[in-house]
Amino acid sequence: MNYYRVFTLRDGSKRKIKLKEGESLKEELQRAGIQENQIFQMQPVELPNNK
Fold it and tell me: CB-based burial of residue 49 (10 Å sphere; 0-12 exposed, 13-18 middle, 19+ buried)?
């Protein structure tokens, strides 16, 4: 299983990024190209591996 975090932004758009072990939230946001004040909601999700 792969773990992702889905960010719902204030403008209604969504961004999904794969979680990396040991990475901070600040680093995740930087990798996703968003700022903390743009986030409306965050949700961790678990998705099956793509085979």
Answer: exposed
Under 8 Å CB-to-CB from 19, ≥6 apart: which residues?
Answer: 3, 4, 5, 28, 44
pLDDT for the residue numbered 26: 94
As a 3-state breakdown, the chain gives helix, strand, coil percent values, each rounded to 5, of: 20, 45, 35
Quote the DSSP letter at residue 46: E
Q: What is the pLDDT of residues 22-37, one digit of tens each?
A: 999 999 999 999 999 9
Q: Cα separation of 15 and 8, whole Å?
A: 7
Place of tokens 């409306």: 40
